[in-house]
Amino acid sequence: MRRGAERTVRDLADGLIARGHSPRLVTSHRGPPSRTTEDGLPVIRHWRPPDGRLRRRRYEDYLTHVPFSYLSLRLGEDEIAHAHYPTDALAAARWSRRTGRPSILTYHGIPSHAGLVERRLRVPILLRAAAGCDALTVVSDAAAAAFRRWLGLEARVVHPGVDLAAFAPAEAREPGPTILCPAPIEEARKRVELAVRALPLVRRERADVRLQLLRPREAALAQRLASEPGVELVEPVEEPRELAPLYARASAVVLPAVAEALGLVLVEALACGTPVVGRDADGIPEVIDSDAIGRLFDGDDERGLARAMLEVLELAEDPSTRDACRRRAEDFSVERMVESYETLYRELLESRGR
């Protein structure tokens, strides 16, 4: 449940159930096949055959389970298939051709030249999946523009949603200035180390600032980070909602990442009334659209990030900031996301005369 796409799928399913629909989730894992019902959602987990040989030859990820997913679709009575990964969309597109029922591919990332050529067959699979499905959706205008630039495809934007009840402001913040970076340091794209390098520059002006980081799995790395002045390690969580109290009590949240299709953690922080810092690129400016809720930083060095962090610490001291952040987060509610997808489902069903 840590990744944004997985959270979006679960939130979408819950929202559809609440509206009287009957979604089911078809997925895969390395264990034996299973069928369960988890909080009202039927879940089919197919066995994912070993793919080490394919991965070593740099073929696209998550190919081996696709025939099983297609079989589940063929044996079901679904009115629509909604795939959340391109290889799954191959099964959905074939199912559409055989049944005459509509299918959707939602792409949760942002295409780039480097990413598209990183794996064999990635581009052909994505093009075939998009062509075979009735609709292609993405999570931001930036992602839609990237699809247009690199693949010549038009995509419909549906922003992911945040549970505004689970992510809510706290009664009080930490007693001293605290900046939370909720990204895993092991993922290089998140650039958590950039925030660590920026911290001494921030502490030159605000000596009591603390930077909270998720504790890494590697003990030596955790020990090194813990020895940095002002760095505080917090335990990682399995369920993202468990981070809500940290968001709400922090003075600010920072995400120095690159290639962010949107930056869902920033929306979660805003829902908690906490101002945010992000890079002025990709989908992040679609979230931080005003100086009243945060700051964007240019470039890739710690000096620009440090300036933005200092400005947001000042912003956090303004009593009006909490309400402004919360209002912005309401534009990305789960309810809006579910309503957008429900509207799309109805459009596609009607277009096929169903």
Give a description of the structure.
By secondary structure, the chain is of the alpha/beta class. The chain folds into 2 domains: 4-161 and 334-351, Rossmann fold (3-Layer(aba) Sandwich), CATH 3.40.50; 178-332, Rossmann fold (3-Layer(aba) Sandwich), CATH 3.40.50. Helix content is 42%, strand content 16%. The chain is built from 14 helices and 13 strands. A 6-stranded parallel sheet has the order 10-9-8-11-12-13, with helices on both faces.
* Spans of at least 5 consecutive residues with low confidence: none
* Backbone CA Rg: 21 Å
Per DSSP, the total helix count is 14
Structural class by sheet pairing and helices: alpha/beta
- Distance between termini? 34 Å
In CATH, the topology of the largest domain is named: Rossmann fold
Could you give the count of β-strands?
13
Spatial ordering of strands, largest sheet: 10-9-8-11-12-13
Order of helix and strand elements from N to C terminus: HEEEHHEHEHHEHEEHEHEHEHEEHHH
Percent helix, as a range, is 40-55%
Brief overview, please?
By secondary structure, the chain is of the alpha/beta class. Helices cover 42% and strands 16% of the residues.
Topology overview:
Layout: H1 4-18, E1 25-29, E2 34-38, E3 41-47, H2 52-56, H3 66-75, E4 81-83, H4 86-99, E5 103-107, H5 113-116, H6 122-132, E6 135-138, H7 141-151, E7 156-157, E8 178-181, H8 192-205, E9 210-214, H9 219-226, E10 231-234, H10 244-249, E11 252-255, H11 264-271, E12 276-279, E13 294-297, H12 302-316, H13 321-329, H14 334-351
Helix pairs in contact: 1-14, 3-4, 4-6, 8-12, 11-13
